[in-house]
Give the backbone structure.
Amino acid sequence: MTRIGKDIDEARRLLQFGEVVAVPTETVYGLAGNGISPETVARIFEIKNRPRFDPMILHFSDIHSIQPYVQAMPEKGQTLADALWPGPLTLLLSKTDKVLDLVTAGSPKVAVRIPSHPMLAELLQQLDFPLAAPSANPFGYISPTTAQHVADQLGDRIEYILDGGPCEVGLESTIVDVTSEKPVVLRKGGIDIETIDALIGSVEVLETSSSRPTAPGMLVSHYAPRTLFRLLEDDEFPSDIPLGNIGVLAFDCFWPDIPPENQIILSSTGNLGEAARRLFSSMRELDGKGLNLILARRVPDRGLGRAINDKLRRASL
Ligand code: TXA
Ligand code: MG
């Protein structure tokens, strides 16, 4: 059985032995291992039950340590890095030979990020290799935002979970491909599009598409709870839904006609940051109630709301 603790030295020791350890980040918990060890990276795929065509992000302590792994940093990438790292931003850059093909699923581009969570930052500083780390959930399920979430699902498969408390952002990092003149946002996440636009001018935003397997983050059914989940398109309560045993993921107030104990309000003050932080844990909580169906509506489509709506849409596919 796994141990949950705050011992950074223990995490470091295990990682140096090639073990896989769950680590906190400001976005979601990661399933981390030595990113330059083929055996360890293969083990991460195995633990997560993740298909090998879905590449992983490499996590670093600072810009300097990224250099050997990427070709030149484009100007717009540098601008984003200067403003937003450490933080919930991942940049896609052209890789060097030092990056394992297994990490990028054969792509010539590698995803890199400098996380801001203080415990992970300290851990990375003590390691002389980057950490490959996907979110610490079984493939296809909701990302974990507490150490207990990780233990609930992967507890029998990893030795240690470094507990850094509940994740501050609660959504995965925003992924931006900066290898072309007009950067492309591949995944909406903890940094909103408005912030990116303001820094580097307007960017292309790749929307959900099932027919684009070349953009692995865009896999259709991601972030899904086990309970049937439906995102309602408008304010009308659909007549085809029987009212029994239904749960609601509400934004800022309870829905009428559904028992309040079956509802979770993401932010009673309508704060999108709070809603983002609470989104995945609320989905998990509803998922654990043995309901027949969970309903949600879109939140305001601005700032972090765009990423929240993206997650809701994927969960309902
Ligand atoms: O916030 C985060 O990014 C968290 C924490 C742990 O850092 N990590 C995370 O990793 O969300 P993961 O593996 O669950 O999602 C990363 C996504 C992958 O699904 C993949 O689509 C995309 O990043 N990705 C990684 N490397 C890529 C590459 N070389 N080309 C295109 N997409 C890539
Ligand atoms: Mg993930």
